[in-house]
């Protein structure tokens, strides 16, 4: 028997046999399931969350392609990208996944909200998964905007109360979903709301905001919530928890921030709280040049003063220096996701001066 005949006989008997074909198909199914089980699980989870919120009369869209109120964060819409950027009015954002396996940062910007005269800027740093940051960014921006839009033109609203109430309410919603879906992720939240001549900043966690005043000096807009701080450590210990050092100081040896939204296991034990710190600033006194909001991927490599000095030299760049600052943090060795937002007050200086003088 010739060699071609032997090869043909072998192919017919073994390669193209029904048993071999069935085995190959089963092997392909197993391989596909193993490599795609995570996306499939997340798809099912998002579907369950969507149904739960619809049942409660709410709407949560996991994609940013079509959201109410002109949602601008596009991180969740394209997970294959390594960087994300946004420039809207006088705000610019640049974000990179960096050296992490997944991008868990989120951001959003809304400027000059209809008749309210308000602008909202937000940074969210997720941990333990991206769901919490994704959910909080979308839900919180919508809920705050609804509260502002309900106010009559010219009506004085207590912005500090609105921000506090909405942060706690969104955390309550997130925990309700987490309990039914075994979701353990969490997120920081840093919100800056400008209305008229007042800047109000709400902070939960260790994302940080700073501002550069008219003299070029750095003024902190928030203070990091770290477990080793006396106030935070005392609260954790009174709840029966502990703080230990594991690379950095962590709540129960796990979480590197003492306040966050989500984090169901630690939240149920009251080791972690979502209570925000609220600070207000008079823009007429500060006459700020710019504001920086950033996740801790930046602050691991830059001090607040260094970041302000860095942006002062690059405010004329297309992203107001945000992209340069992000990349410099990466080159300095940041191992986290890095998101930087720069709000350039000088771009609207003429209109601001007219408003402040009224």
Automatic annotation (TrEMBL):
Q: Which SMART domains match?
A: PP2Cc
PPM-type phosphatase domain mapped to chain residues: 90-345
Any one GO MF annotation of this record:
phosphoprotein phosphatase activity
For this protein, the parts annotated as crossing the membrane are 12-34
- Which superkingdom does the taxonomy of this entry point to? Eukaryota
* UniProt keyword Chloroplast, yes or no: no
Matching entries from Gene3D superfamilies are given as: PPM-type phosphatase domain
Listed A to Z, the keywords are: Hydrolase, Membrane, Metal-binding, Protein phosphatase, Transmembrane, Transmembrane helix
* Similarity annotation: Belongs to the PP2C family.
Which PANTHER family is this protein grouped with?
A: PROTEIN PHOSPHATASE 1L (PTHR13832:SF827), PROTEIN PHOSPHATASE 2C (PTHR13832)
Q: What is the protein name stated in its UniProt record?
A: PPM-type phosphatase domain-containing protein
């Amino acid at each position: 028997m010739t060699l071609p005949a032997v090869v043909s006989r072998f192919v017919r008997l073994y390669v193209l046999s029904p048993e071999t074909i069935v085995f190959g198909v089963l092997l392909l199914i197993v391989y596909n399931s193993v490599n795609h089980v995570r996306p499939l699980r997340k798809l099912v989870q998002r579907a369950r969350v969507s149904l739960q919120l619809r049942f409660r009369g709410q709407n949560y869209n996991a994609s940013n392609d079509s959201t109410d109120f002109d949602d601008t964060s596009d991180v969740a819409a394209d997970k294959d990208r390594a960087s994300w950027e946004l420039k809207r009015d006088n705000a610019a954002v640049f974000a990179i996944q960096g050296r992490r396996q997944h991008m868990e940062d989120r951001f959003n910007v809304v400027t000059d909200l209809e008749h309210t005269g308000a602008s909202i800027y937000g940074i969210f740093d997720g941990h333990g998964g991206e769901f919490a940051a994704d959910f909080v960014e979308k839900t919180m921006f919508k809920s705050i905007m609804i509260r502002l839009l309900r106010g009559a033109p010219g009506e004085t609203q207590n912005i500090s109360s609105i921000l506090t109430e909405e942060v706690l309410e969104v955390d309550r919603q997130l925990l309700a979903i987490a309990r039914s879906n075994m979701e353990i992720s969490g997120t920081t939240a840093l919100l800056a709301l400008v209305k008229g001549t007042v800047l109000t900043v709400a902070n939960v966690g260790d994302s940080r905001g700073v501002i550069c005043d008219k003299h070029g000096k750095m003024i902190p807009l928030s203070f990091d919530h770290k477990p080793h701080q006396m106030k935070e450590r005392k609260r954790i210990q009174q709840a029966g928890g502990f703080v230990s050092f594991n690379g950095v100081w962590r709540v129960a040896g796990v979480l590197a921030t003492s306040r966050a939204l989500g984090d169901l296991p630690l939240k149920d034990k009251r080791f972690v709280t979502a209570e925000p710190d609220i600070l207000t600033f008079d823009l007429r006194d500060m006459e700020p040049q710019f504001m920086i909001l950033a996740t801790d991927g930046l602050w691991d490599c830059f001090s607040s003063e260094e970041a302000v000095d860095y942006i002062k030299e690059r405010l004329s760049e297309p992203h107001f220096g945000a992209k340069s600052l992000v990349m410099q943090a990466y080159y300095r060795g940041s191992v986290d996701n890095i998101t930087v937002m720069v709000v350039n007050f000088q771009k609207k200086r003429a209109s601001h001066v007219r408003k402040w003088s009224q």
